[in-house]
Design brief:
Blueprint: E1 3-5, E2 11-12, E3 28-30, E4 58-59, H1 64-70, E5 74-75, E6 79-84, H2 90-101, E7 107-111, H3 116-125, E8 133-136, H4 141-151, E9 155-159, H5 176-193, E10 196-202, H6 212-215, E11 221-227, E12 233-241, E13 249-255, E14 258-261, H7 266-269, E15 280-287, E16 290-301, E17 310-313, H8 317-330, E18 339-344, H9 356-368, E19 376-378, E20 381-382, E21 388-389, H10 394-404, E22 408-412, H11 416-419, E23 428-432, H12 435-445
Helix pairs in contact: 8-9, 9-12
This protein binds thymidine-5'-diphosphate and magnesium ion (MG).
Residues 90-91, 113, 159 line the site of magnesium ion (MG).
């Protein structure tokens, strides 16, 4: 008899508690003899040119931020995995979503994790009710199929996949292999019947993984729910999508009556109280197809020790050191004997170099006590010679600024020609060649 680790396929003649290869516990199962299968032809080949494109029907969830990350709604027959840490709001979103979908479709919500009365009290808190939303508090797979055959729902929500059980498999309840086999049975069933399957899945605090990573290839779309520093803000990210773009984000806020969608980033990432203060500048960053408005704050102060230190929250410290060096080299300002602090609003982490100009503006503003009007946005990357360079998706960023009613936008001079094609009238462009022009502009005009 041979045993095999279901995690890494390591074999062993005895059943081990811990796999010495991948270090996982309780993953050894008896290796079944390979069946001898008689092969005969029951499928056929298709020429690519002969295949007809079947128009996949999409249904909107009624939650814009969710539709955005899904790629404009849910596709019939598709399966979606939604992962996130315990307590982040998966069940809340799943219930809100189920209620919205149940307005026009029948929905079966399988709650293997919470009792009926817990769900009822959550629904009362969320102030939702529906005649077309059916709750099943069973966790056995065959029972789920029996109810599905009887109810014939269009959408099935499972909260959560870890808690389901199956009499058909002899794997250990809750083990990775069982979760995988149940997910496989469910996705297969829903695909054949053309049902939408939404699976909720936990991930642990340190980001792993026991569950979701091993399930990702079984589903069409993977969404991850994430905190950003602020306690009640949530980001929903697409990391895989067979039917739409990846790297989209949806923004939500957890309130006392559930998750509230945030359609305008201005509402949360720009602090209205800080109007015209020193060291504050505004810029945009692109996440997926979305342009998000971001506030950069800096503080340049006398050093705590005999030499100046740099502290960064939201951009890489090396980038900050480079920007500080550029200011020292190309302007008459001295920063080596100052402490420099940078903070990006709401704990956002930004890797884009498109926010360089805004960071430089905010540093100069704090250093020289110059106020920057909250009506101006800075867009541009800086090169090592202090020159401003064009950035990607400029049109998208500017049209979003225009929509939000910003009146002034500082841009690299290199964008001047392209800007003539933009059909925007209400926004004034200020073209800046390099950091020297930026400093003059801040000193002169604001
Ligand atoms: P929940 O959806 O149960 O998280 P998960 O399913 O990811 O474990 O949400 C849990 C947290 O959200 C809990 O701490 C209470 C809070 N919450 C609110 O703040 N407002 C609400 O309306 C609801 C339903 C929950
Ligand atoms: Mg939950």
């Amino acid at each position: 008899m041979l045993y095999i680790c279901t995690n890494c396929q390591q074999t062993s003649p005895t059943k081990l508690g811990k796999c010495y290869n991948c270090q996982e516990w309780n993953t050894f199962e008896e290796k079944k003899d390979e069946k001898v299968v008689k092969i005969f032809k029951n499928t056929k080949l298709h020429k690519l040119s002969d295949i007809k494109h079947d128009n996949q029907k999409r249904i909107k969830t009624g939650i814009k931020e969710l539709d955005r990350v899904l790629g404009d709604g849910l596709i019939m027959g598709s399966s979606i995995l939604m992962g996130g840490e315990p307590g982040i709001g998966k069940s809340t979103l799943a219930l809100q979503l189920s209620q919205k979908l149940s307005i026009n479709h029948s929905v079966m919500y399988i709650s293997a994790e919470e009792s009926l009365s817990q769900i009822k009290s959550r629904s009362e808190r969320l102030q939702i009710s529906s005649n077309n939303l059916f709750i099943l508090d069973d966790k056995e797979l065959n029972q789920i199929f029996v109810h599905t055959e009887e109810l014939k729902p269009e959408i099935i929500v499972v909260d959560s996949i870890h808690t389901l059980d199956s009499e058909n498999t002899d794997t250990i309840p809750g083990s990775i292999s069982q979760v995988r086999s149940i997910t496989h049975s469910l996705t297969d069933y829903c695909k054949k019947k053309g049902l939408i399957l939404i699976l909720i899945c936990h991930i642990t605090k340190d980001g792993v993984i026991a569950g979701p990573k091993t399930l990702e290839h079984l589903v069409d779309t993977v969404l991850y729910f994430d905190h950003i520093d602020s306690d009640d803000l949530r980001l929903l990210r697409t990391t895989k999508n067979r039917y739409g773009p990846t790297n989209e984000i949806g923004i939500f806020k957890m309130e006392s009556k559930g998750l509230l969608e945030i359609n305008d980033s201005e509402e949360i990432f720009i602090s209205k109280e800080n109007d015209n203060s020193f060291g504050t500048s505004i810029t945009t960053t692109i996440e997926g197809s979305r342009s998000i408005l971001v506030e950069v704050q800096s503080l340049v102060s006398q050093p705590l020790q005999s030499y100046g230190k740099r502290f960064s929250n939201g951009i890489e410290i090396n980038r900050l050191m480079m920007l500080v060096a550029i200011i020292e080299k190309f302007t008459r300002n001295k920063l080596s004997d100052k402490d420099v602090f940078i903070n990006i609003s709401q704990g956002l982490k930004i890797k884009e170099t498109a926010i360089d100009m805004a960071i430089l503006a905010s540093l100069i503003s704090s250093l020289k006590n110059i106020q920057i009007s909250s009506d101006i946005v800075f867009l541009g990357e800086v090169g090592l010679n202090g020159e401003f360079k064009n950035i990607s998706k400029m049109e998208k960023r500017i049209s979003e600024l225009n929509r939000l009613g910003f009146k002034n936008c500082a841009l690299p001079s290199k964008f001047q020609n392209d800007s003539k094609n933009l059909p925007l009238k209400d926004i004034k462009f200020i073209f800046l060649k390099n950091i020297f022009e930026l400093e003059t502009f801040l000193g002169d005009k604001i």
